[in-house]
Every structure is written in C-alpha cells, then in structure tokens.
TrEMBL record, chain A:
It comes from Evansella caseinilytica. GO terms for cellular component: plasma membrane. This is NADH-quinone oxidoreductase subunit D. InterPro entries: NADH_Q_OxRdtase_suD (IPR001135), NDH1_su_D/H (IPR022885), NiFe-Hase_large (IPR029014). GO terms for molecular function: NAD binding; NADH dehydrogenase (quinone) (non-electrogenic) activity; quinone binding. The lineage of its organism: Bacteria, Bacillati, Bacillota, Bacilli, Bacillales. It is an enzyme of class 7 (translocase). Transmembrane segments: none annotated.
TrEMBL record, chain B:
It comes from Evansella caseinilytica. InterPro entries: NADH_UbQ_OxRdtase_su1/FPO, NADH_UbQ_OxRdtase_su1_CS. NCBIfam families: PRK06076.1-2. One of its GO terms (biological process) is aerobic respiration. It comes from the Bacteria. It holds the Pfam family NADHdh. The keyword Transmembrane helix applies. GO terms for cellular component: plasma membrane. Belongs to the complex I subunit 1 family. This is NADH-quinone oxidoreductase subunit H. Its EC number is 7.1.1.-. The chain crosses the membrane at residues 6-26, 74-95, 107-127, 148-166, 178-199, 236-256, 262-280, 300-318. NDH-1 shuttles electrons from NADH, via FMN and iron-sulfur (Fe-S) centers, to quinones in the respiratory chain. The immediate electron acceptor for the enzyme in this species is believed to be ubiquinone. Couples the redox reaction to proton translocation (for every two electrons transferred, four hydrogen ions are translocated across the cytoplasmic membrane), and thus conserves the redox energy in a proton gradient. This subunit may bind ubiquinone. GO terms for molecular function: NADH dehydrogenase activity; oxidoreductase activity, acting on NAD(P)H, quinone or similar compound as acceptor; quinone binding.
UniProtKB/TrEMBL annotation, chain C:
Gene3D superfamilies: 3.30.70.3270. Its cofactor is [4Fe-4S] cluster. NCBIfam families: NuoI. Residues 37-66, 78-107 form the 4Fe-4S ferredoxin-type domain. This is NADH-quinone oxidoreductase subunit I. GO terms for molecular function: 4 iron, 4 sulfur cluster binding; metal ion binding; NADH dehydrogenase activity. The lineage of its organism: Bacteria, Bacillati, Bacillota, Bacilli, Bacillales. Belongs to the complex I 23 kDa subunit family. It comes from Evansella caseinilytica.
Length: 369, 320, 151
C-alpha cells in the first residue's frame, strides 16, 4: 500500500525573522525538503531610480544612503564618482583618502552586521551582540566625521562634506587595533565550533559557472573561486596605492563565504591603517563642488562601479546638460545576488534554507531600491 | 489524612515551583545578558527581581486568542497536557532527607515514563494550531524527543545498576553509603545524560522545535496569553525537574556538608545544571535536524550501551 | 575535535567583564558635535532666500517672509515650518544656508509623540530647540553676498 503524500506550500515572509526585512520566499516543501523556491520582492520598492530624475544631483545622495543602508558610504561614493566622471573633475587627494577610510570602516561595519545576524540565523545568540559592539566602534567613528550613524550623506560630488575632526585619524588608528583583537576573538568563539562547521561546510554550494552565469559578485563570488574585486580589477579612487590581498576560496559553500568575509575584514583594517599613515593635509572638495546647487554636468553618460560589501555596485548616469540627471541606473549587488536563490535552494531542507539565505548577505533596501 | 497531606504537599510544591520558574527565567536572562555584555532585566524592582512577575501578569491580561482554523479542543488541551506531566514527576523527587512526597520504589521508571508524555503536548499544540511552521516544529520536536529519550534512559541505567535500586531516595542513600557521588564512576553516563537532557528539554543548541529564526517559535507560534504562559511554565518546570533528577542521580541529591540543610544543597546543585544550560544557550549555534538525529542514534546510544556494559562489568568484578 | 569548548571560555570571560549597556533614559549617548539631530532655527539670521526649501529632497520645509520694517529691500522670516514626518535629517538645508540660520543640533530624542500632527514643528519650536551642535551659539548675521557658499 502506498501512502498519498502532498507537498506543502510554505510562505516564508514577508514577516519572517530570517528574511532580514520584507522579503518573501514561496517555497514548496516535501516534508522538510524544498522542491521549489520562488523569491518575491518589491515590498520595499521606493522607485529610487525614478526619484533621481526629479532631483538636483546632490539631492540624490541621501537616497543612495538608503539603498544598502549597511554600507551607505560606498553607495555615496559610487554615485558621486559617476557624476564626477561626467564632470571630469579632479578630486583632492585628502578627500580621496578620507573616502577610502570611511568606505573601509563601513565595509567592516557591514560585514560585522552580517556576521552577527548570520550567527543569529544559525541559532547562536551572543555573537550578534559582540558584533554590534564592534560595529558600534566603526559607527561611532563614522558618526564623528559625518554626523550620522547609518545614513551618512557624507561624500559629496567633488570631495567630501567635512574634513576629519581633530584627532580623528589617530583615533581610527587606535580603534583598528582594538577591532583586530575583537575579530580574532570571533574565530575562537565561532569559526572552530564543530556545530557551526557541520551546519556550514558543504552547504549551499555555488559553482564557478553559476557565479559567472548569474553575474554574482562580491564575497559570494570570491568564495567560489572567482577572483574578482573591483578594488584590484579596476582600482577606483586611490585603491592602487594600498597593499592588500583579495581573500578567495575554492569551496563555494557557506563556510567559504564566512571565511572570505572574516578575511576581508582584516584586509580592510590593513587598508585603513595604510590610509591613515599616508593621509596628508589639503583640500577636501573640488573648488566647484562646494556649490552643491550649481552642479551641472555636460551632456553625456558615465558608468562607475565599486566594490561594496555585498558585491559590485554600479551607477550608470545619463546627463542631458541640465541640473537634474536624465537617468540614473543602479546596479545593486544584493538584487543580483538574491536571484540565485531559486536554484540554490532546491533539495535543501528548511534549516539549510536559513543558512544559505543568510549567507547571501542581502539588504532589502538594496534589493528593492 | 494521608490524602490531605498529599494534596497539601502538591500545592506547596506547585507554589514553590511557580516561584522557582519565575526566578529560573530571571536567572537565565541575567546569565545570558551578562555573557552578552548586557545587564539583563533591571527595570522592575531592584536587580530586575520582579521582571518575570510583570511578564506573567502581562501574559495573563492578554486576550486569549484561538485561531479560527485551529482544532479548538486539542488546542486548549495541549498546554495543559504539556504542563501536567512535567509537574507530576515532582512527586518522586526527594528534596532532602525528610522532605519528599512519595517514596516510590520505581521512582526512576516513573520519572522517565511520565516525563516523556510532555511531547504529546508539543505534538498536539503544533498540530492543532493549523500553522505550517508549528506543524514542522512539533514534528521535529517529537522526532527529537523520542530519539533522545533512549540515550537518556540508557544513561540512567548505569546508575540503577550500580545502586541496585530504582528508588530515587535509595539511590541517594547508596551514594551516601559508598561515600562517592555517581558522577565519578558514571562520568560517561553523566555526559550522555546531560546532552540528551538538553535535547529532551528542547533547549539550545537542540532547540529545533522552537527555532526562532527558522520556524518562528515552532509549535507555540499561535499561542498567546496564558496558554503561551503555560507552555513556558511547562518548559521551565521540566527543566527544573530534569536538573533535580540529575542532581539526585549523579550529584548525590541533598548530600553535602552539614552546615547547610539538605534542601539548600539540592537547590544549589540544581542551579549548576541550570547554569550549564544557560551557558550553552549563550554560546552554541543550533544543530541541524539530520545531524541531531545522527548524533543521537549513532553516537549517544552506542556510547550509552557501552556505558551499561562497563558498569555491569565493574559491578560484577569489583563487587560494588 | 573539541574546539567548540573554547567558545565557552569566551562567553564565560564576558560573564565577568564590565557591561557596555547604556541605560537609555537615565544616561544618554553623548553625540559628537557634528551629529545631525533635530534642527534649530535662528529667525534673526534668516534672509528668506528659500535655499533650504529648494534643496530639501523631501520637500518638508515651508517658509514665508515679510518685508523688513526698516529696509524694504530686505526680507525677514514670518513663518518657518519643518514637517518631521518626512524629514530625513540629511543636513542639506544647513549646508546651503548662507547665514547659518537653520542648523542641526545634537539632539535626537525630542520628536516622539502620539500623533502625527505633532511632528509639524513651527518657527517657535525650532527656535527654542536649544542644544549644542555644530554651530555658533550666537553671533552677528553674516554679510550678504555669501549666497550659495558652503557654511
């Protein structure tokens, strides 16, 4: 006698603790095995690209903060860089250094959030609080220089908004040491943990081909052996002046992504240290950049890309010579990376779903724009 | 007269238990808070002493929601069925030399048998809620509790073999006689007991049935108000019962230097177990279902069997 | 094999360490001077140039001016409102203000209320929002002609 069984449609989200925001996953489960997964997004859609068309060039900067709100500095930067490309402006050196320092600090903060929430998804409670303590170190530094803890609105077209306050650079140097020690502690607490390894090693494997075919970037790609990092590939800003490595791993599983991100934090610390050594006094903004209402790039188009904590973020800006952009297109890494989910989840169980989904490190503000 | 005494004792134990659970929850939140560089609850009363009382009052005042699609009778019955067995097992526990309810000569068997009924509450709660997450949670829970019941029983057997009695008081007295707590000759059994007890209690790292980040609290997702409180009460009562049981079996129950009364020793030893569970929760990530099952069947059960064999050999050869 | 036991050491170590919680209503985070908190407005400095209204990405600033009683060429501020339901505290208004009439204070916690309408703050509330911040407490109104300059 055979028993008739049915699959069950499980609606994960938009209100679910491990979707990290308003994201919905329609999964079909056979017992606990997933047979079909369909991501549903758009709950946080604000039409950022369309909004940009009605804004002055500078007015859109606060909106880039709200895409990937965990890594707002890079978003600020990549948008400003696109407009600078249109304007063909030279950026003062000090501004570039400040940009690099804040971007890397922000990358660490973003990876720390990922680390904490990922462990929370996996079921460990304490790492979240340790990570947020360390993230606060980064955010306090960024708060001092930019006046906000998350939506910085710090980078301006042609430079940065404010010079570093007195003693800030030395403070950063100090905090870098503290962060390095704290991150080392994570290894003791989590990386070696057998339960954690059992849950992550070999889970959610992404092959090199998949990475390339789906256009996946960032730590996800580097964990699958695709050595691509825009900071090395096409050094923007002043990244060619620093000595740092691009951590890559071949396995492509969740554990590899974890290791890549941890290693990236160390590399970011290295960059910050070097930048703090090299930074000089000087101008912080292009002489025309200070007049933020008067920015009017000549007609043309430009694409810039940068390595955000989630992957390659790109801005394609079209100008028709007016004081408002004709079109802004945003390449959001989270959006591209999340699309792999429908392939990656087949055959996994619900617990692995959470582990894999968390390892993608998406931010819904960026997925939905 | 006997009946009156029994009822009175039960009421006293129940009241003590309510207080115990209240402060076990506070203890847990404090311990986990401190491990997470936080302060834990500290708003209600000095040192947060009234925090749980406030929480319970809030739960009691909440609207009693029964989902429209739920199986009403079972839904109502489930929390009670979860709580009742975890409370009933306190009958055979002996708090001190003189303080006990029933001197049952099959105490161990009674404890294990009755406590395994708790899973019915879990199953019924998850099933009747008519919620997919709850269903998954309860099925996971039952599978896990059934599997870990076996190593739990087997690990206890070592103690029973050594002491030659199933009477919980008898076991403590035996430890008194040989002048040694069973944790020393039965260390393997103790470790197995500890691990399978965590799985029995659905506590982290084996808290799969209520995995917050996956199943949105699992089998009690749909419960609110005092029914939810009942589930929580059952969980902590069971935690206290299991640690009391472990104290009796492995740490010599109420035995201890005479400057403190036996019951104080008993509670102190229980606190050690509670602390270990909270410590685990603060440290470890959640295990995966299939790993958990494999670990139970392929590691714990063979080890527990080995423990029984070794214990039997020691018992016969050494003549303990 | 038992590397997970090391983790217990870490958590136990934190068990005895000093806690870092800030007990919010009793003690508050001291925000740096640049913190972009809730605005403050200096009516005597305002020259009714409308720059802040134009730059505001969320269109939450509304203002009206009236003629200066002595010098008819100049204007003085009459009403000035910020609707904090929509304000994203981006700081662009203070950045464009030629006279530093609208500034941001380091205050972050005096906006909570039970109704939406209370988020609509008028000139009086904004002038009295007296906290430290990245601005001069008082001083002469800067000369005209700095229009459009960074502050």
């Amino acid at each position: 006698m055979s028993i008739k069984t049915e699959t069950m449609t499980l609606n994960m989200g938009p209100q679910h603790p491990s979707t990290h925001g308003v994201f919905r996953l329609l999964v079909e489960v056979d017992g606990e095995t997933i047979t079909k997964a369909e991501p549903v997004m758009g709950y946080l859609h604000r039409g950022s690209e369309k909004l940009a068309e009605n804004f002055l060039y500078t007015q859109f900067i606060p909106y880039t903060d709200r895409l990937d709100y965990l890594n707002a500095m890079t978003n600020n930067y990549v948008y400003c860089a696109a407009i600078e490309k249109l304007l063909e402006w030279e950026i003062p050196e000090r501004a570039d250094y400040l940009r690099v320092i804040v971007m890397e600090l922000n990358r660490i903060a973003s990876h720390l959030v990922w680390w904490g929430t990922y462990l929370l998804d996996i079921g460990a409670l304490s790492p979240f609080l340790y990570a947020f303590r360390d993230r606060d170190i980064c955010l306090d530094l960024l708060n001092e220089i930019s006046g906000a803890r998350m939506t910085f609105n710090y980078i301006r077209i042609g430079g940065v908004k404010w010079d570093a306050p007195e003693g800030w650079v030395d403070k950063v140097k100090e905090k870098v040491k503290e962060l390095r020690e704290n991150i080392a502690e994570y290894d003791t607490l989590v990386t070696g943990n057998e339960i954690f390894q059992a849950r992550t090693i070999g889970v959610g494997k992404l092959t090199k081909e998949q990475v390339i075919n789906w256009g996946i970037s960032g730590p996800l790609a580097r964990a699958s052996g695709v050595n691509i990092d825009i900071r090395k590939e096409e050094p923007y800003s002043i990244y060619d002046r620093f000595d740092f490595n691009i951590p890559t791993r071949e396995e492509g599983d969740v554990f590899a992504r974890y290791k890549v991100r941890i290693a990236e934090m160390y590399e970011s610390l290295k960059i910050i240290e070097q930048a703090c050594e090299q930074i000089d006094e000087g101008e912080i903004i292009h002489k025309k950049g200070a007049r933020i209402m008067m920015i009017k790039p000549p007609a043309g188009e430009a694409y810039t890309r940068a390595e955000a904590s989630k992957g390659e973020i790109g801005v394609y800006a079209v100008s028709n010579g007016k004081n408002k952009p004709y079109r802004i297109k945003l390449r959001r890494p989270s959006f591209v990376n999340v699309s792999i989910l429908q392939d990656l989840l087949i055959g996994e169980n619900i617990q692995n779903l959470v582990a894999i989904f968390g390892s993608l490190d998406i931010v819904l503000g960026e997925v939905d724009a | 007269m006997d009946l009156l005494y029994m009822v009175l004792f039960a009421v006293v134990v129940l009241l003590g238990l309510l207080g115990g659970v209240t402060y076990a929850i506070l203890f847990e939140r404090k311990v986990i808070g401190w491990m997470q560089i936080r302060n834990g609850p500290n708003r209600h009363g000095p040192w947060g002493l009234f925090q749980t009382i406030a929480d319970v009052l809030k739960l009691l005042m909440k609207e009693d929601i029964i989902p429209a699609a739920a199986d009403r009778k079972i839904f109502v019955l489930a929390p009670i069925l979860a709580f009742a067995p975890s409370f009933t097992v306190f009958a055979v526990l002996s708090w001190s030399d003189t303080l006990y309810a029933a001197d049952l000569n099959i105490g161990v068997l009674y404890f294990l048998g009755v406590s395994s009924m708790t899973m019915l509450g879990v199953l019924m709660g998850g099933w009747s809620s008519n919620n997919k997450y709850s269903l998954l949670g309860s099925i996971r829970g039952v599978a896990q509790m059934v599997s870990y019941e076996i190593p739990l029983v087997l690990s206890v057997l070592g103690v029973v073999i050594l002491s030659g009695t199933m009477n919980l008081r008898g076991i403590v007295q035996y430890q008194d006689d040989i002048g040694m707590w069973f944790i020393i000759p039965q260390f393997l059994g103790f470790v197995i007991y500890l691990i399978s007890a965590i799985a029995e209690l659905n506590r982290s790292p084996f808290d799969l049935p209520e995995a917050e980040s996956e199943l949105v609290s699992g089998y009690h997702t749909e419960y609110s108000g005092f029914r939810y409180a009942f589930f929580m009460l059952a969980e902590y009562t069971y935690a206290i019962a299991i640690s009391a049981f472990a104290t009796t079996l492995f740490l010599g129950g109420w035995l201890g230097p005479a400057f403190l009364p036996g019951i104080v020793w008993f509670i102190l030893k229980m606190c050690i177990f509670m602390f270990i569970w909270f410590w685990l929760r603060a440290t470890l990530p959640r295990a995966r279902v299939d790993h958990l099952m494999q670990f139970g069947w392929k590691v714990l059960i063979p080890l527990a069997l080995l423990n029984i064999v070794i214990t039997a050999v020691i018992k016969v050869w050494m003549g303990w | 094999m038992f590397r997970l036991l090391k983790g217990f050491g870490v958590t136990l170590n934190y068990f005895r360490k000093k806690k870092i919680t800030i007990q919010y209503p009793d003690e508050k985070v001291v925000m740096p001077e640049r913190f972009r908190g809730i605005h403050r407005f200096f009516p005597d400095k305002c020259i009714v140039c409308n720059m802040c209204v134009n730059i505001c990405p969320t269109d939450v600033i509304t203002l009206t001016g009236k003629k200066h009683p002595e010098n008819p060429k100049k204007k003085i501020i009459d009403t000035y409102n910020i609707d904090f339901q929509g304000c994203i505290l981006c700081d662009l208004c203070t950045e464009v203000c030629p006279t530093d009439a609208i500034v941001m204070t380091a205050r972050y916690d005096n906006l909570s209320s039970y109704t939406r309408s209370e988020h609509f703050k008028d000139i009086e509330w904004l002038s009295n929002n007296h906290v430290y911040g990245n601005y001069e407490e008082s001083g002469p109104v800067p000369e005209m002609g700095e229009r459009g300059e960074r502050k």
